[in-house]
Amino acid sequence: MTKLKNYISGQWIVGSGNDIPLYNAVNGELVAISDTEGIDFEQALDYGRTVGYKNLSSMTFYDRGEMLKKLALYLLERKKKYYDLSYKTGATHADSWVDIEGGFGTFFTYSGLAKRMLPNTPFWVDGDTQKISANGTFLGTHILTPSEGVSVQINAYNFPVWGMMEKLSTSLLAGVPSIVKPATPGSYLTNAVFQDMIESGILPEGAIQLVCGEPGNILDYVQDGDSVLFTGSASTGKKLKSLPSVSKNAVRFNMEADSLNCSILGLDAKPGTPEFDLFIKEVRTEMTTKAGQKCTAIRRIIVPENLVGDVQNALSKALDQTKIGNPLSRETRMGSIVGKKEMAVLQEKINLLRAETELIYDGKHELVDADYENGAFMSPKVFYNDKPFEKNISHEVEAFGPVSTLMPYRDSEEAAALAKRGKGSLVGSIISHDEKFVAKTSWKMGSSHGRIFVLNRDNAKESTGHGSPLPTLMHGGPGRAGGGEEMGGLNGLHFFLQKTAIQGSPDILTAITKIYQPGAEKKYSEKHPFRSYFEEVEIGDSLETAGRTVTEADIVNFSNVSWDHFYAHTDATSLNGTIFDKTVAHGYFILSAAAGLFVSGKKGPVIANYGLENASFFKPVYAGDTITVYLTAKEKINKGVKGRNVPSGVVKWLVEVVNQREEVVCVATILTLVAKKSPFIKIDYKDFTKRLNNLTEKSLPLWGRMTAQEMLEHLESTMKYSIGELETRECKTPEEHLEKYQDSLYNFRKMPKDFPAPFLEDGKLPALKYKNLDEAKTHFLESVKNYQIYYRENPEAEHLHFVFGMLNKEMMELFHQKHVTHHFEQFGLV
């Protein structure tokens, strides 16, 4: 039988004897054995703080985001084996999809957030700069850096994959190494995913470690800078939080615990309305998904008192139709509890509920391809609390399974009051089409809920459901739910980051933050800043423009073009009592005129205007005033580019517009999309002529088996194919892969050195056409000249390529740039 290995200090380790058997929840068979006996937890934490922290924290946020994406893609390719293991935990295919692919999706989400919103630096500037001196020579701001420690992540048994991935998505992106401790029952599934994460080679050494089984005394060794993320029962969480090592060392502690979540049926949602049907469906789903083993499941069903009977009948019928049994059967819609031990605990909680409330539904389901004796199966159960303001057991005890309690209310005040009696929940939902009822109820219950989900006919088709935490929204809740905050978009990273105030001069803050601060030194040069590629732009690069005198005609013409006939621009007789002395130039005209002064008209690396931020107008500009612009590179943001887009980044430029008295009249930040410098050489006849002077008969390839002459004759042929002088009759790439191949022309990845040419029979090179190398050079250069002339005269032409299919002028140019660079590098010509 498989004994699960632990991954500690970069090594796979088998425990030394404290065996814990892990059983198949469906049929009771032994699946694996966990054992953590003998692990040196103190060494594991130290390894994470040193090796792991050094490697992760030195990476940029952008690079960590790219790492998450690569890891998610790697795991997604191997998902089938995870599903096979997930079924053994009692999860259906739908349950497993949420756990497995939902977990990977969290990585994808955070990767996307990093690429769009985080800097290409190991630190993150948080918030605006504060001017804290009269003359602006002393400024302050905040930066966020990875907390110098290791994160111990203790997960619950209900989501063996998602539970790990959603915590790792934020900790890894923040640059903090983690020790993952999955709940023991389904740890064999966590172990399988973890093994592949390590085998991928994508993560730096020390980034993650794994403890599969009992956690031992691992928390005795946490210290200042470390963090603990706990998901499980509130009682266990409180014990861990009060440990001396945690409380005395200021260890960060995040808890996501018990949650008596509720769902409220609106007063308007009577039988026959879409909302009533949606409510029944949502409650059934939340009771039966993962067999009710969800921290977000609906535990309290709050309905208008006159609809209790209707809800009971409709919900009973819906639950009767839910097939329970072996997850491998296509009929099954609800699987088992994760194990017999957990089922015993669940039964104890059911007995507590039964002591004070009435059991009004107890399903007598026949199992599909399974039996109650060997598997950990339980049918759904619904209780009725007729006096929910007097009988408190429904608001105190969470039965972690397919169990929920129905209770009545009279008005929105009572509905909100009952929702809050759960003393803190992860999520509460309201199903209603009455906006006033929803607004009034949600305001009142908001203080005790981490998330409020509203469902009605308008959003039902696209709704993700009551029980689905989303990476871009906070997952956590106050009070009984633990007070934790996980995910929530970029806010989820803050738990792992140290916020530090930075004070100093504008030059010092610019040097530290890599963001230009007003008052810092500007760097002027004869080269226009818009002529620089993304990599070449330096923070502080500046341009002072010529002046432009604003005229009455400018103001009138802009009014006519823009249709902005606001009186201050057009009617001098209406200015009494205003801040203006005479008709004033439009603010957007000032910005437009500023752009006209600072842009470079020639085609260059700047691709497009990407946006405008923080535009402010400080003084009016009248006809006769002369404006001058100071343009300064303020910040650079790396950008992930997909598909057929030029690799690029975003540059933020500080635009300062002054009048003839050097008074600032307008300040704004404009964003431009700036191309990155291509690593490939341009197709240029003159440049190639010079490079080929270094190519001789004695030149040997750095890889491959081509001679110099064979290489040039090959390049000549591809040039001729691309303009129709030679005819390509078929593309060797399957149709379904063509789009991917064509997209690859736009990225900056070089052609692989071992790429097999599909048009060569048995890999044999064609016979030489020319007498010697010099003659081959002449013909190759002639083909380059013909290629350039052809596409100047035929810009709309398209031709078939052996590998990339039908290519237009742009794609053909990109192909030749990569292809020629590949072979010129082969012979040391680049």
Automatic annotation (TrEMBL):
Keywords: Oxidoreductase. Residues 12-499 form the Aldehyde dehydrogenase domain. Residues 460-484 are annotated as: Disordered. InterPro entries: Ald_DH/histidinol_DH (IPR016161), Ald_DH_C (IPR016163), Ald_DH_N (IPR016162), Aldehyde_DH_dom (IPR015590), DUF1569 (IPR011463), HotDog_dom_sf (IPR029069), MaoC-like_dom (IPR002539), PaaN-DH (IPR011966). Gene3D superfamilies: Aldehyde Dehydrogenase, Chain A, domain 1, Aldehyde Dehydrogenase, Chain A, domain 2, Hotdog Thioesterase. It holds the Pfam family DUF1569. The keyword Protein biosynthesis does not apply. It comes from the Bacteria. Coiled coil: none annotated. Residues 538-640 form the MaoC-like domain. This is Phenylacetic acid degradation protein PaaN. It comes from Kaistella solincola. The lineage of its organism: Bacteria, Pseudomonadati, Bacteroidota, Flavobacteriia, Flavobacteriales.
